[in-house]
Every structure is written in structure tokens, then in C-alpha cells.
Amino acid sequence: MTTIAIVTGNPKPSSRTHSVALTVADVLDKELGTPSERVIVDLADHAPRLFDWADPTLTEITAQVATADIAIFASPTYKASYTGLLKAFLDRYGNNGLAGVTAIPVMTGGWPGHLLAVEVHLRPVLVELGATVPARGLYVTEPELTDLPAAVGKWSQAAVPLIRASLKN
């Protein structure tokens, strides 16, 4: 059984960014061909307690994500980068806190001009925390939100073989 954690750093609960992350998890389930257990974290639901380092719920969530086989970290593009909400969650991890996790950076945005934000901003912090990031991140623009299976499917053609290989190591 594969554990997939989905962490969405959009201040709006049940956002379109969260839908993209869930679609990525669905595609991974199908393409990897193994049953999965999911840990779903919509950080909008936890924002008021995010800076309480002793909060038991966030401590448990942080541990669950750190022990997942795959973790999808999704954020809308804010000021050409990922949200402070996601950054605050990632700050809860110490050095190599995501070691052993295969991470998938995902970002959404209004236009392709911020396409590299997923690679330049989100990917490096995941690597710094010890995660393995075997494939390029996924950046979905607003027009692509109307057909998520197509947008995610195009990305998955190159990404899934790399993700599969990282899980075997």
C-alpha cells in the first residue's frame, strides 16, 4: 500500500489548487497501479494554529506527511512564488524532515509567465528538507483548470516513470 499525502497551501478552503492536487493523486493511483491510502491536508483549515509549534493536530499531520511514500505539495502562485501558508507548514520540518518522501511540487497560476515558480521556488525548499523530487513540478494555468485530466495527464507522461523509479529505490 502506497501512502500519498496531499498538502494544499491555498488560503481558500476546497480551492481549485486543491482540486489539482487531488487530480494528481488520482492519476498517480491509476498510473502506479497500486492501492493507496491518502492523507489530505487543506492548510486553510489549520491556518489559525499553524504557528503553534505545540499544536497536537499539526504535529500529527506533520508526522503523517513525513512518513508518506509520496507527498504532493500544492500552492497557488502568490507574488511569483508559493504561499506563506505552505511555507509556514514546511517550516515545521527540521533538517531532512522529509527524507524518504518522494515529493511532487504543484502550483497553479493565472498565466504561464510564472511557470518557473514551481521549479525555482517550491522545488528547492522540498529538496532542502531532504525530499526526493524526481520529476519536474506541475504548473497549471487558469485556462487549463477546465480540463484537469488533460493537464495532469500531459505532465504525468514524463513524471510517472521517474516517480515510479524513485519509489523502488
TrEMBL record:
<protein>
    <submittedName>
        <fullName>NADPH-dependent oxidoreductase</fullName>
    </submittedName>
</protein>
<dbReference type="Pfam" id="PF03358">
    <property type="entry name" value="FMN_red"/>
</dbReference>
<dbReference type="GO" id="GO:0016491">
    <property type="term" value="F:oxidoreductase activity"/>
</dbReference>
<dbReference type="InterPro" id="IPR005025">
    <property type="entry name" value="FMN_Rdtase-like_dom"/>
</dbReference>
<feature type="domain" description="NADPH-dependent FMN reductase-like">
    <location>
        <begin position="3"/>
        <end position="138"/>
    </location>
</feature>
<dbReference type="InterPro" id="IPR051814">
    <property type="entry name" value="NAD(P)H-dep_FMN_reductase"/>
</dbReference>
<dbReference type="InterPro" id="IPR029039">
    <property type="entry name" value="Flavoprotein-like_sf"/>
</dbReference>
<keyword id="KW-0288">FMN</keyword>
<keyword id="KW-0560">Oxidoreductase</keyword>
<keyword id="KW-0285">Flavoprotein</keyword>
